[in-house]
Amino acid sequence: MSEAVGPRVAIIGGGPAGSLLAILLARRGLEPLVIERGAAFTAGPQRGGRSINLALAARGIAALHRAGIDTDVAKLLTPMRGRMRHDLDGQQRLLPYGQQATEQIYSVSRAALNTVLHELAARRHGVEYRFGEQCVGVERDGTPLIETHDGRRRRLAADVVFAADGAGSEVRRALTANGAISSSEELLDHGYKELTLAARDGEFALDPNALHVWPRGGFMLIALPNLDRTFTATLFLPHRGAPSFATVGANTAGAFFEREFPDAVPLLPNLERDYASHPVGQLGTVHCRPWSFANRLLLVGDAAHAIVPFHGQGMNAAFEDCVARGDLVPRHGHDSGYDWPAIFAAFETARAPNARAIAEMALENYREMRDEVRDAQFELKAELAFELERRFPGRFIPRYSMVMFHPEISYAEAQRRGAIQAQILYELTDSTHSVGQVDLTRASALIDARL
Ligand code: FAD
């Protein structure tokens, strides 16, 4: 094994977190090296067990803005202003995400985003990427081992290493095996499978400015628009029981979709074939403590705190991590001597409560998406939440809006206020059937007393 003369700062993983972090560090005058296991990014499909497209929201956009690249990414985005609920009888109903025109989220292709971030990092900021190289372990002193595409191994002799190698992080696995940190993965008993909803005559077959949801209680189908006028649909289904991925196979998928998602079937011309060939993805929450080791290695993004995707916030949270890092670097020193231990400790203190909060809210949102959006009481509470926001601006903001549209409110604070607001909504709607019947004087008193 050879010992290379290392760069001062290395990043393992050139996904969204790795590339954004590289840009932010380069803007601070550092020269990060990115080690990326995959082949060089192209805008074509990248199948690595992660979703084909994602929802980007205000937190992610704020971080991209801080890196000076939000306008570069804007051309990749399709706005979605609410959830379009598809009932069994084919009826569609839009549940807006927010009340302001700006309160929308954006569908973006993972491959296109990774490609643009890499290009910006490499071309605009001179960041070096080594594709086809992967971290295969971490020595007891915290030095990562890198394997090149020809199978040779070397120690990565960097002063400081950021591990942005995703939910299945090899760095986290190796540190856990060494006893350096403790971590666990809480797997969800539901998995996912992605399918493509075709365009119709070259145009979107469904409203492109919505996130489509077919909520069916124990399971659901969702679909996000792509720039090529298709939608990527994701079926979330339990692994066991009925129906589940164990009972719905390629030969029964047609009948299952006809029964549960009849209006989607005409848009799935190759349903059986695609259902058979596309993998079932695992979902889960990563718990990990601490996030750093040996004063030189820090886990960021999914590597530290992967979550289930039902709030559409995993990447947004990973981007927020990067900005937190960008903020902390100059505060603690100069290029010749950053106080990395202090930076790492401050980072984890600031981010860990927020990672826990969004992990819990993402799990709760699964129940809401697959179940409650079908429920009349859910709609009444959502309507009342908007009414209270209109009447008491700044004092009452629906929790979903705090998470998706208010980066200035931390995830932990959104969760705290959200719990109080949920109780207020419950009390105000307990024996009412419409927003008109709600006692707004009482609402004001409750908000004053509790928020
Ligand atoms: P990753 O995106 O996983 O990137 C890790 C990178 O490291 C990859 O490029 C990988 O090739 C590389 N790598 C891995 N191992 C090694 C190694 N050993 N050596 C070198 N390189 C390595 N988030 C949202 O915000 N909105 C959404 O709508 C959303 N939808 C989702 C839907 C699904 C089905 C799933 C599974 C996730 C979703 N997420 C969403 C979460 C989002 O995908 C992640 O939070 C985000 O990708 C995290 O970015 P990251 O850079 O930390 O990790």
Strand content: 15-25%
Q: Which stretches are poorly predicted, pLDDT < 50 over at least 5 residues? A: none
Annotated CATH architecture of the largest domain: 3-Layer(bba) Sandwich
CATH topology of the largest domain: FAD/NAD(P)-binding domain
CATH class of the largest domain: Alpha Beta
Name the hetero compounds present: flavin-adenine dinucleotide
Q: Return the structural class.
A: alpha/beta
Number of helices: 14
The H-level CATH homologous superfamily of the largest domain, spelled out, is FAD/NAD(P)-binding domain
Q: What count of domains describes the coordinates?
A: 3
Question: Could you explain the architecture of this structure?
Answer:
The chain is built from 14 helices and 21 strands. The protein is α/β, with parallel strands linked by helices and about 450 residues long. The protein folds into three domains: about 230 residues, FAD/NAD(P)-binding domain (3-Layer(bba) Sandwich), CATH 3.50.50.60; about 100 residues; about 80 residues, no CATH class. The strands form five sheets. A six-stranded mixed beta sheet has the order 9-3-2-13-21-20, sandwiched between helices. β20 and β21 form a beta hairpin. α1 packs parallel to α4. The radius of gyration is 23 Å and the shape is globular. Bound molecules: flavin-adenine dinucleotide (FAD). The site of flavin-adenine dinucleotide (FAD) has 35 residues, from α1, β3, β4, β10 and α8.
